[in-house]
Amino acid sequence: MAGKVYELVASAVADIGNGAKIAVGGFGLCGIPDALIEAIAATDATDLEVFSNNCGVDDHGLGILLAIGRIRRVTASYVGENKEFARQYLAGELEVELTPQGTLAERLRAGGTGIPAFFTPAGVGSPIADGGMPWRYNVDGTIALASPPKETRVFGSKRYVLEEAINADYALVHAELGDTEGNLVFDKTAMNFNPLAAMAGRVTVAQVERLVEPGEIDPAAVHLPGVFVQRIVHTGPQNKRIEKRTVSAGGRA
To answer: Which of 205, 199, 190 is nearest to 225 (CA)?
Structure first.
């Protein structure tokens, strides 16, 4: 290790232990920190609490950690294409806090900017604000733990609900390009949740496809400054996965 750069992926996540709170970037399977997730799966870390837009698929991304029973709680906006995620939730094996997608993004951003909470109109008049959302089920299908009601206030003539920021012990992100100081550039859809997750982590670990020296990235092109990144590891080109591949039957359009 030299500065922020780690030679081995395993070394970059070696201190992530039982019960750690982890913010994970990516959108669907786009821009997910797959190498970092696989490295955690190779450790004994368990009872993890994860903040992520979704939880991968059954055999890829966070789905790997789910399948081996390492995740205790998930805060997400989308169950996605993960059958094991749904099975564990409905069987009472996994605690799940579903939250509106924009609210999740803002909770991560708020955590990174030192804002403890904020008011939003999203979810007002629904169980998101009123409480009663099933966070965990009993094995018989009854609700073991439900969400509490949240504070609401009126600004002008409109009601808003109070949402608390997310502060994670670690953040795992994937970037197309990074320098050894941790300045990162994300590619297209990978911009979704990666910068925000990185901001929310006390220790942020970035896997990058290309690693360059400081000064080689135009400062105007930097999406996330290195002040938010504590560790960086060069993992090379990522094998891109698609959640649902749809192709035409052939012939003329």
So the answer is: 199
Say how many CA atoms lie within 13 Å of 166 toward its Cβ: 31
C-alpha dist (Å) from residue 93 to 66, 148, 232:
10, 20, 33
- Whole-structure pTM value: 0.92
pLDDT tens for each residue of the chain, 253 residues long: 459 999 999 999 999 999 999 999 999 888 999 999 999 999 999 999 999 999 888 888 999 999 999 999 999 998 777 889 999 999 999 999 999 999 999 999 999 999 999 999 999 999 999 999 999 999 999 999 999 999 999 999 999 999 999 999 999 999 999 999 999 999 998 899 999 999 999 999 999 999 999 999 999 999 999 999 999 999 998 877 776 777 877 766 5
Nearest one of 43, 51, 39 to 18, comparing CA atoms: 43
Q: What are 144's two structure tokens?
A: 């073991």
C-alpha closest to that of 233 among 185, 174, 188: 174
